[in-house]
């Protein structure tokens, strides 16, 4: 096992997933709030007209559900992406969605998107709170968080460089193992027999020579 420092696929676009995780999570919550509050708000006497639970209108679809769903989508891209371009796309989606929360009511009439209604409130402070929670304050907070996320994504820090050039473990190819063939049983049995035959032939020759070898030794 060996380690080699290599550049990850994607190069400068790579970043840690944690870079946009916090902003993405908060934006998902805000998007869910913006898309669902017109339908569940009447349960808590906190609604625009018509103050009926789960009542669908064209204005609610264009002015609240659409930007809320777009904010959730942008937050998911920020939360789960390791690619800088994808995360920045999510950040821009949330910025435009938050801006639509702010200016949508003013443009609903000229664009024929319907009427968002009026706050159901007995006091002026409650009316202001409902308008901020449904449109103006919610949109401004979404734009703020989206802008923060874009600012963080636009800067390539030393941590991003270290992440893109992180060491990757590579396994060296294994060397082929040469195995010696096991000696055959027939070979091991034949070799002692051949040696015994050679010794037997030499012994008979010495006997027929009649001790010639000894006479050469005496000479």
Structure description:
With 219 residues, the protein is mainly alpha-helical. The protein has two domains: 2-170, no CATH class; 185-214. Helix content is 64%, strand content 4%. The protein has helices at residues 21-40, 58-80, 84-111, 124-134, 136-154, 158-164, 185-209, 212-218, and strands at residues 2-5, 167-170. The longest helix has 28 residues, at 84-111. It is elongated, with a radius of gyration of 43 Å.
> Spatial order of the strands in the main sheet?
1-2
How many domains in all?
2
Strand portion: under 5%
Number of strands: 2
Topology as H/E string? EHHHHHHEHH
Helix residue percentage: 55-70%
Q: With helices defined by DSSP (H or I, 4 residues minimum), what is the helix count?
A: 8
Shape, please?
elongated
- How would you characterize the largest beta sheet? 2 strands, antiparallel
Oligomer: single chain
**What Rg is obtained from the alpha carbons, in whole angstroms?**
43 Å
Which structural class should the secondary elements be placed in? mainly alpha
Q: Give the N-terminus to C-terminus distance in angstroms.
A: 73 Å
Point out poorly predicted stretches: 211-219
Mean pLDDT: 79
């Amino acid at each position: 096992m060996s380690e080699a420092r290599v550049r990850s696929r994607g190069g400068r676009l790579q970043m840690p997933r944690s870079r946009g995780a916090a902003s993405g999570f908060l934006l998902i919550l805000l998007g869910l709030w913006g898309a669902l509050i017109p339908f569940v708000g009447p349960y808590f006497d906190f609604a625009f007209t018509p103050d009926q639970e789960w009542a669908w209108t064209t204005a609610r679809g264009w002015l609240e559900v659409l930007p809320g769903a777009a904010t959730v989508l942008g937050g998911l891209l920020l939360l789960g992406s390791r690619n800088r371009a994808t995360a920045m796309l999510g950040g821009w989606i949330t910025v435009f969605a938050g801006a639509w929360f702010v200016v949508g009511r003013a443009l609903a009439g000229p664009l024929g998107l319907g009427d968002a209604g009026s706050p159901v409130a007995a006091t002026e402070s409650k009316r202001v709170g409902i308008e901020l929670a449904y449109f103006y304050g919610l949109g401004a907070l979404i734009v703020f968080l989206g802008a923060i996320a874009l600012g963080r994504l636009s800067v390539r820090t030393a941590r991003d460089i270290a992440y893109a050039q992180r060491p990757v473990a590579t396994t060296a190819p294994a060397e082929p193992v040469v195995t010696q063939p096991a000696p055959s049983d027939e070979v091991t049995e034949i070799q002692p027999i051949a040696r015994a035959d050679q010794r037997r032939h030499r012994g008979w020759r010495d006997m027929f020579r009649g001790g010639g070898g000894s006479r050469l030794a005496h000479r």
